[in-house]
Amino acid sequence: MVLKIDFNSDEAIYIQLRNQIIMGIATDMIREGDTLPSVRQMADYIGINMHTVNKAYSVLRQEGFVKLDRRRGAVVSLNYDKIQAVRELSQNLDVMLAWGICRHITREEVHQLVDEIFDRYTRGCMETEEKEADEG
Q1: Between 13-26 and 50-62, two packed helices, what is the crossing angle to 10 degrees?
Q2: In CA terms, which of 62, 77, 82, 107 is 20 to 30 Å from 70?
Q3: Buried b vs exposed e over 101-133: b needs ≥16 C-beta within 10 Å?
Q4: What is the dihedral of CA 30, 35, 38, 44, to 10 degrees?
Q5: 62 and 100 share one domain
């Protein structure tokens, strides 16, 4: 798993780690059932405090991306309520769109960005499905 943590960013490291794991799941680099590195392993790998990793894993658990298993550690388990997920996405987009409007980003530019980003995540999933179909 390749993680891109920016130690100079204003964004908290645990949030960056959380986001990187979610992006890994979305691109199918991390799959449901995969076990994430232990808190100690991840902290050593990134060079951060174990409490920071623990906080990221706890947030991922609360958000339904992982379950914590005493024997296996943090296991990717996509447990979600789609209605709630749409509501949360709407809240996040609301702020981002207001931010963009204040910077004169047009509706067309927003739609283009959304399409590009959506394609980036779904392209990896489609390629994996095609590869599995060819092998099967």
Answers
A1: 50
A2: 82
A3: eeeeeeeeeeeeeeeeeeeeeeeeeeeeeeeee
A4: -30
A5: no
* Secondary structure tally for the chain: helices H, strands E: 5, 2
Query: What is the 8-class DSSP label of residue 35?
Result: B
CATH of the domain at 25: 1.10.10.10
Q: What separation in angstroms does the CA of 113 have from each of 16, 21, 109, 120?
A: 21, 21, 6, 11
pTM of this prediction exceeds 0.90:
no
Q: How far apart are CA 109 and CA 115, in angstroms?
A: 10
In this structure, are 71 and 110 located in the same domain?
A: no
Q: Does 98 score more than 90 pLDDT?
A: yes
Q: How far apart are CA 86 and CA 122, in angstroms?
A: 17
- Please give the distance of CA 92 from its chain centroid, rounded to a whole number: 14
* C-alpha to C-alpha distance for 106 and 10, rounded to whole angstroms: 27
pLDDT for res 16 = 97
Helix axis angle, 13-26 relative to 39-46, nearest 10°? 110
Mean pLDDT, residues 61-68 taken together: 92
Size (the chain), residues: 136
